[in-house]
Batch of 4 targets.
Target 1
Amino acid sequence: MLIKINTSWHNQLAPEFEKPYFEQLVTFVKNEYATHRCFPKGNQIFAAFDHCPFDEVKVVIIGQDPYHGLGQANGLCFSVNDGIPFPPSLINIFKEIETDMQIPFPSSGNLERWADQGVLLLNATLTVRESLAGSHQNKGWETFTDAVIQKISDAKENVVFLLWGGFAKKKGAKIDRRKHHVLETGHPSPLSANRGLWFGNRHFSKTNTFLEQMGQKPIQW
């Protein structure tokens, strides 16, 4: 089965693409995109991988679902296309960066600039139907993205995993914490952040401190 994904990832994940669950997933996604408006655009479904080749992964951030509003999702978790207003969770992410790193709010919520530096912005589910949050859950994407996390954990060392909220923490349960650096906090959504579970986590400076200790370039957040 031909899957258009960055070659370095295709080499690592090729066995997944041949499994029955993935073939069923492809059939489901193709049908959904043919009969409903879905996000992100078809050529951006694997954008997180295309912007961040396997060999260059330094940081992994785990999200849940793509944004389901028109023009928002671009295949990277928490990220929106240029010119799109920042969703509440992204606003809180930028607020924390501003406090933690003294970096002012950016003009765009497009996080491709992070991905191009080695930050894998991985949603657990890579597609969604317009205006229907969670509509593509439990169709096989979670199995695939579990395999992605497992492959990174097994084949790499000293990756920083940022697990925000209960869902991401559960998703990251299989990470080998003897080999990797795992930081956990509440979700940046207003529901969690306003209860004091997000702000002050300093994940962005902590990530850079660890990367520098490992002799790697810090991320320009």
Target 2
Amino acid sequence: MYLCLKLIFLLFMDYIVGCLDSENFVEFKLVKRTQLSHNVASFKFALPTPNSVLGLPIGQHMSCRGKDAAGDEVVKAYTPTTLDSDIGYFELVIKMYPQGRMSHHFRELKEGDYLAVKGPKGRFKYEPGQVRAFGMLAGGTGITPMFQVARAILENPKDKTKISLIYANVTYDDILLKDQLDGLARTYPDQFSVYYVLNQPPESWDGGVGFVSQEMIQAHCPAPAPDVKVLRCGPPPMNKAMAAHLQALGYTPAMQFQF
């Protein structure tokens, strides 16, 4: 029954008007804040009605506006972990850095407060069947657009696109959305795989160690081909290193996209 309802929703998505405004900021109420670790929290925002959808195309992001510790306005782009099939609300998973200007705003955000959002934004817009397979190279909070795209593909019964994700972090506790990613890997074993890489792994770690290498990409991502695309999202040094690795392995610019 759930899959039938999901399919019906996907078929009618083109006829649904979202709540986002690409020209003006719109405010949404924080209805639930869940602390996931010492510096990561999930923020659930209500849409105007229980049947409303955010209206964010898959693979795109939105600008969030807040105030830093000095009271100055700050705007930063984020990608929700929810889809438009999650009606009535959207969620952001945020890692709050000690010196981050927008991190300060989210640290201070309490249930009942409002967040100003504008969008959609971004050059990437996913369409089912766009490629045969995606490779995904994510670091830290760069997992959020990957998670959004992966969910959209895997929850669409008609979309058979394969996904191979390499997700890099410093420590085990830094891994965001691990339970959800592992759940996708268990539910869709023939379509989705995830390989974790840690710079400072625990003693019993059986994943990758150090930084993402060319050898890891060769082993865990689809080989270069016209119907393959590798998505990248992470800190600037990682993005630069991954671009060099992919070029050396034969992935053309058309086979890559950086969020």
Target 3
Amino acid sequence: MDIDDILASVDRGNYSSPESTALDHQQLTRFWVAERAVSELLPWPAPLMDRMMERVRKQIEIIEDLAASSADPSTSTTNNPTLNLKLSILQTDLSRTQYLIRSFLRQRLAKLTKYSMHYLLLISPPRESQTQSTQSTTAQPEDSIPDPSAAVDTSPLSPQEAAFIHAHQNLLAEHYGLSFMGSFPPPLRRLDDNAGGTRMVQAPDTKEVVFVRCLVEEVSVIVPADDAAGLQEEYGTTMHMGEVWGVRWEGIKRAWERGEVEIL
């Protein structure tokens, strides 16, 4: 029995095949690399993560069963010399998968905490006018936080991430209010204030440069006009298969969503 057979044995008897397992590992690795390279939060890969977490759960069960068997004198290494080797390989493969999942989630959590107000405004339904609460002497910073609980679609966040940033931003707003914002005039206590042409809500930089490889025959790279960068009109160019370019994320984002390029 070689290593591939040992890893494949984890998937025998369930819905997945060794081929789909290898493909999911590749997709997870690509999502992880992309999440690390882009400042914007990428769409939550719900079906992929559901499959990966199910495989992790089943692999842990198999490892526990093998560990129990290795401790049984009737199934010692004398009777089954490959048992410890099989157990070691499965544990190594499990550790690799867990590392990718943990690192992927930590990258997303870092972005969620940094841009929490931006994503709350993005996924939450429009709120009614809050003129009275803004002018009220009892207005507090947490009054300006939108509630995503009524949102039909929380993309690019998962429902759990949406609940997390709402709770996180509420705690942060309460801390700000008790620390210093409570002494401000009521109109200045909002965390989403855009008065004076200055936007308080920090958003990801979509103009950052990322390195991508073209996976199809050709891909159009469209960069919007940007007076600050000296681009007076929309600019477009074409990548060809196998080429590696450094381009703005905003110019290649749609192509990445269609699977036409991969982020390096």
Target 4
Amino acid sequence: MTDPVLSVRDLRTHFFTRAGVVKAVDGVSFDLAAGEILGLVGESGSGKTVTGFSILGLIDAPGRIVEGSVMLNGTELTSLPEAQLRARRGRDISMVFQDPIATLNPMLTIGQQMRLAINAHEKLGRRAAEARAAELLTQVGIPSAEARLRSYPHEFSGGMRQRVAIAIALLHRPSVIVADEPTTALDVSIQAQILYQMRDLAAQTGTALIWISHDLAVVSSLATRLAVMYAGRIVEQGPTATLLRDPRHPYTAGLIASLPATSKPGEPLAQIPGTTPSLLSLPPGCPFAPRCARQTPACTEEPALTIEADRGWRCFHPVGQMHEEPA
């Protein structure tokens, strides 16, 4: 088995506010192999986006990484000086944001922006840089790529702008791309096209992807492996097909049951009762216990990680196994 390109261990990112300490990421661990697509899923506020930002060292005050390791190709990112970390962003690890406007400058043409991104890490002549930029635009499905280099962001549709953002992230063939819900605001058909192209690009280039999404249906069509987050923690992870067919954590099972595809026509969608807890005042033990039909007094303790073959979960009473009924 080859070494992972990215290894995250016990990552903890806290925000120190006047109201208290928000444990946005609380002990996250996973590995990512070359060409692998990891889907990071969960409800809003589960810590998915903060995990992605933490990996790239993009956490601003009052937040900071308080513990843990982020190893990229054998280099520890959390201890790198800012200048060295900045030199690796875009070259070795990139991010695609939910809103492409966060990436694109409205005052510059697409070609100018892509040349700037290239020259930030390597010096290429204008023609060579434009040739690479056009090649990447073609790969992400933008027609007449050479001509579109002279266009401004406002001349592209939302879907096309997101393709440009993805092309910029791919310019230096990074080992890892973190994509933060990049297709959420797009039309379903455009979303499907981008997902298909990203799957192909990962296979062709060997770039690994972390695809952050609250939409389990979308990410399960793309990811080779899923990590399900709740209240800042990964509560279950494993191969996509395995988790969808046979979930162990009640939260994972609840997310799957709430998908429209799992309900009969005319019947109401299943829902997970209650709401996500405040990260300022998490319950003791398992944070999902107050919403869980399988909770018992044991759930007031922190569940240990159970590993079975190529999957793992944190639950005293896994789905599909016998458990003590609540008193």
